[in-house]
Write a structure and sequence with these properties.
The protein is α/β, with parallel strands linked by helices and 340 residues long. It contains twelve helices and seven strands.
Length: 340
């Protein structure tokens, strides 16, 4: 067993993933970089049925949250952006909140504006059968830790409902055909659960898993959840070891994890492509400022995976190095097979 890991891992085989239109887009990003506003996020609602301990959205007073545009107003807002922003490519939008599925009818009206749509949900609301959407379901640990982080007072269980984790597991298992990605925000409270969660959700039929690190936000009284850079590096060693076992179950390539290490991460966040190239709108249609997490996020301690992932798509030396290593590994495997 790898020295970085505590559990035994022997994932069964899965069918190889087919190339998608997004894979072709990544080739274009490699060749030409990102157009401005290629990626964006929309807080389609300020409402959520949970109150998670680390949620940036509710860092401030809830009475200060923006009012919500209705469906017709959102269509008009997007039409306005399309008309007035001459270089607004409307390539990809991530629908967030709040929990965006509270307003699924609005998303259904608006998602045709974008070539690619992603929805980030807490997984407790039934998923609509939208195979053209990339689904992200947030998980914050194994069953015990997830319940503590997301429903410490057990309010979700009222009305004889089960816990959140089991509801999500059933939701994901029933919708395997949608290709769901598990999104895990690593904090001091759940760092010990990573291996177990990878095994559980691989077996449950999630298509992918992705990780980022808790980012401190002014107004949240949970700064202790943040892992310092030395601790982050140790966690990344574990993630790399797991990725080499589970392969493409990990949604991000290994080079993204290398970029998140302490010797590289500040350079990436100081020149954040998410801040430079994306747009973020709040529930009223107004710009959120620097990124989806708003102006109160601590960029010096950012753990959001997106800036690192975006950089990994345009860092040509890293990409070429990875391709060269992959070619060498494939050659070695072929030679070994010929000797058998």
């Amino acid at each position: 067993m790898n020295s970085q890991l505590q559990l035994e891992h022997d994932p069964g085989p899965r069918p190889k993933r087919r190339a998608s239109a997004y894979d072709l887009a990544k080739v274009a990003f490699f060749a030409f970089g990102f157009p401005r506003n290629a990626f964006g996020s929309i807080d389609i609602t300020s409402r959520c049925n949970l109150r998670c301990r680390h949620c940036y959205y509710y860092a401030g007073p809830e009475e200060d949250l923006p009012h919500e545009l209705d469906a017709d107003q959102w269509v008009a807002r997007l039409e306005e952006l399309k008309r007035t922003s001459g270089r607004f490519p409307f390539f990809s939008c991530t629908w967030v909140g709040g929990d965006p599925l509270i307003r699924r009818n609005v998303i259904e009206r608006c998602k045709p504006f974008f070539r690619h749509n992603a929805i980030v949900t807490n997984g407790t609301i039934p998923l609509p059968n939208w195979p053209d959407v990339t689904w992200y379901v947030s998980i914050d640990g194994d069953e015990e830790v997830h319940e503590y982080v997301r429903d410490r007072e057990k309010l979700f269980r009222r009305g004889n409902r089960g816990g959140i984790y089991r509801v999500i597991m059933d939701n994901v298992t029933r919708n395997r055909h949608l290709g769901i990605t598990i999104a895990y925000c690593i904090s001091r409270e759940n760092v010990h659960c990573i291996e177990r969660v990878v095994k559980d959700w691989y077996e449950a039929g999630a298509r992918h898993i992705t990780f980022d690190f808790f980012t401190p936000v002014a107004g949240l009284e949970n700064d202790a959840m943040w892992l310092d850079y030395h601790e982050r590096d140790a966690v990344i060693d574990t993630l790399v070891a797991l990725r080499r076992i589970y392969g493409d179950f990990f949604a991000i390539p290994e080079r993204v994890l290398r970029l998140m290490r302490s010797d590289r991460c500040r350079d990436i966040t100081d020149h954040c492509l998410l801040r430079e190239k994306s747009f973020a709108l709040d529930a009223s249609g107004a710009s959120k400022g620097k990124c989806v997490m708003g102006d109160e996020a601590d960029c010096d301690r950012c753990g959001c995976v997106v800036p690192f992932y975006l950089h990994s798509l345009v860092d040509r030396p890293m990409i070429m190095g990875d391709l060269a290593r992959a070619a060498v590994d494939s050659s070695r495997q072929l030679l070994a097979a010929m000797r058998i």
